[in-house]
Amino acid sequence: MFSGLSIGSGLLIFLTLALVFIFLLIRSWPAIQTSRELTGNADAVSLVQYVAPLVYGTVLAALLALLMAVPIAVGIALFISHFAPRSLATPLGFLIDLLAAVPSVVFGLWGGVWLVPRLEPLFFFLNEHLGWIPLFGGTVSAPMRNMASASVVLAVMILPIITAVTREIFLQTPRLQEEAALALGATRWETIKTVVLPFGRSGVVSASMLGLGRALGETMAVLMVLSPGETFSLRILQVGQHNTIAANIASHSAEATPDVMARLIFTGLVLFVFTFIINAIARAIVSRTTKS
């Protein structure tokens, strides 16, 4: 009976995913059928032209957030698991877990009202002194509701998830291996570098992929911070250059006509497939890392 329930539960997950995929495919099929290049009308764009900038913006925002969040999350996890006294590590761990439960709309309000004005001096400095780098180039102006601001908010949002998972992995490091390294004369940092980090490598990858999944699908925080655009620009400080799939769906779905809704659902299908591929790649990386 237990075996049957376990297999049935696993198959139910696959069935649910399959039904979601079929629903998205059916509802977006009109947009797929009618999509074609129209050379006589400058206002008409193909489905690929419509989706490609959104995919680019989604991936760019998620990667920037991951780049900022992962090093900080690993550092916090190491501090909680191996440096902080128990009297500090326990409440700090609870605080990190509670931060992961904050709704995204709260992060969006915090980012749009409080964070963006305080990031503007830093962004002006980067644009003035490092403007020769494509990421910091372009014409900047306040309020800076740009990709950089949205990425910082996303990084704060995924930080608790990555930290919590990584912390639990580091705490599972075999105590005997750590004691053996210390007995051989290794310092605490050398023990972490040679024992803890190699042991938790697969866990860090898994935690990063969980954070990446949330960053790819985040809606309200990005919608409330980012000023949308439809370009492939690398200038993350310039306003009106980028947009994400989730934010675009949320901003246009309320007043969408059937044709526009079909396109929006197709972008949701693209995001669904893309997230599924990312998770599959992450599982492969974790499996290979664990075997090695």
UniProtKB/TrEMBL annotation:
Signal peptide: none annotated. Residues 55-282 form the ABC transmembrane type-1 domain. It holds the Pfam family BPD_transp_1. Keywords: Cell membrane, Membrane, Phosphate transport, Transmembrane, Transmembrane helix, Transport. The chain crosses the membrane at residues 54-80, 92-116, 147-166, 264-286. Its main location: membrane. Part of the binding-protein-dependent transport system for phosphate; probably responsible for the translocation of the substrate across the membrane. Belongs to the binding-protein-dependent transport system permease family. CysTW subfamily. This is Phosphate transport system permease protein. The gene is pstC.
